[in-house]
Design a protein that fits this description.
Largest sheet: 4 strands, mixed
Helix content: 55-70%
Low-confidence stretches: none
Bound molecules: glutathione
Length: 210
Amino acid sequence: MTGTVQVRIFGTVISTYTRICQIACEEGGLAHEVIPTAARSPANRHPFGKVPVVELDGLELIESVAIVRYIDNAHNAGGLQPVDAAGLAVMDKWIAIANNYLFPLFEHGLVMPWVMHRVAGFPLDGEAINRALPGIGRALGFLEGELAVDGAWTKVGFTLADVFLYPVLRGLELTPQGAAGIAQCDRLVAWLETCRQRPSIIATRWESEP
Ligand SMILES: N[C@@H](CCC(=O)N[C@@H](CS)C(=O)NCC(=O)O)C(=O)O
């Protein structure tokens, strides 16, 4: 989204959580920019050393759940959230699964070993990958089974659940073993492809994506 910058996102440029906030900005029609900030740098204001930290509407926000909910409520009339309590609970369940289980599993098991290898030139940590693969396989099987129920994470189409799940799954898909695992899950592949047509996903594409 171009125009006068309304949202400043302090975070690493290729980051799952930076992208989650960027997608929410795009969905809300907010012009945003990323100010490259390393998690463990003195410039990072997050009290627990995470990125991103976000400035908008005179607020300084941390924690992506709080950030994207604020953006969606204040700037998108809550358009990415179910209106009923049961629907909200389902959406929140998927956000929690993405944050608490999928992201750590994928990040430590495949994404970071490949980043350290491809970007920093370290030997590939095959042991970490081999340890993580069974759990990653089980997680993908679980997701595939859940998508089989009605083809989406919630009953109301694209929500904040998708905003979290897409970058988490896409990061995994950019590793060789992650791509191979996802390729065996037809419904996950179809969901990723549907997301890829969405303007907010296109606009926030990582430079490293093929
Ligand atoms: N709970 C945080 C998590 C953010 C997070 O884990 N960010 C990653 C980058 S995608 C990070 O800061 N990693 C650096 C580290 O853990 O040292 C949020 O929801 O914003």
